[in-house]
Design goal:
The protein is mostly beta strands. It has one domain (22-167): Acid Proteases (Cathepsin D, subunit A, domain 1). The chain is built from two helices and twelve strands, in the order αββββββββββαββ. Strands 2, 3, 4, 5, 6, 7, 8, 9, 10 and 12 form a ten-stranded mixed sheet that branches. Strands 1-11 form a two-stranded parallel sheet. It is globular, with a radius of gyration of 18 Å.
Length: 168
C-alpha cells in the first residue's frame, strides 16, 4: 500500500501533465482592448472576481448603452496613465477580503497571459492601497492554468504597445 506521501507525489505528477500552463502568484498581463500592453497582476484563487484599479471613473450613455470612462495608472507612483472606455456589463455588490461590501461596475475585457488570450469580466475599483493594480480571481483563471505560489513572473512580459490613449 502506498504511503500518503507517495500518493501526493503521484497526484502532482499527473496534474503536471494536464497541458495547462503554470503561473506564479504574480504575473505580467496585457489588456489589449483597453490599450494596456503590460500591467502587473496578483493571482488570487481565493477571490471570485477580478479587480482593476481605476481612477476618475464616470458613466455615460452611448447609443442607449451604459458605458464607463476611467483611467488606469500603469505604475503605483507616477508613470503613464491610460484613458479607457468600455461598455458596462453589470453593477454588483462585491465583498472584499476584509468583509467590506461595495457596489462596483463590471466590464468585459480581453486578457492576455502566458501567450493565451481570452475574454473575461472584471470589476473597477480603487486599489491604490494595494501593491498590484490588477487582481485576477478564479473566474478568470479557473481551468485554464495551474497556479504555483512558489513561482513569480514565470511567463514572458507581454510586449509594450504604444497607444494614443497613453499620457505621461
Amino acid at each position: 500500500m502506498p504511503s500518503p506521501d507517495t500518493a501526493v507525489v503521484a497526484q502532482s505528477a499527473d496534474h503536471a501533465t494536464d497541458g495547462r500552463a503554470s503561473l506564479g502568484w504574480r504575473e505580467w498581463v496585457a489588456l489589449p482592448g483597453l490599450g494596456i500592453g503590460a500591467i502587473k497582476a496578483k493571482l488570487d484563487s481565493g477571490a471570485r472576481s477580478s479587480s482593476l484599479h481605476v481612477e476618475a471613473i464616470e458613466t455615460f450613455d452611448q447609443g442607449g448603452v451604459a458605458h464607463v470612462r476611467f483611467q488606469v495608472r500603469l505604475r503605483r507612483r507616477g508613470g503613464a496613465v491610460v484613458a479607457c472606455t468600455a461598455p458596462v456589463l453589470d453593477r454588483r455588490i462585491v465583498t472584499d477580503s476584509g468583509g467590506h461590501r461595495s457596489e462596483r461596475w463590471f466590464i468585459g475585457v480581453e486578457l492576455e497571459i502566458a501567450r493565451q488570450r481570452f475574454s473575461t469580466e472584471m470589476n473597477l475599483t480603487d486599489r491604490r492601497a494595494m501593491l498590484f493594480p490588477l487582481l485576477l480571481g478564479r473566474s478568470a483563471l479557473g481551468g485554464r492554468f495551474r497556479i504555483d505560489p512558489a513561482l513569480s513572473y514565470s511567463c514572458p512580459r507581454p510586449p509594450r504597445t504604444t497607444s494614443p490613449r497613453i499620457r505621461a
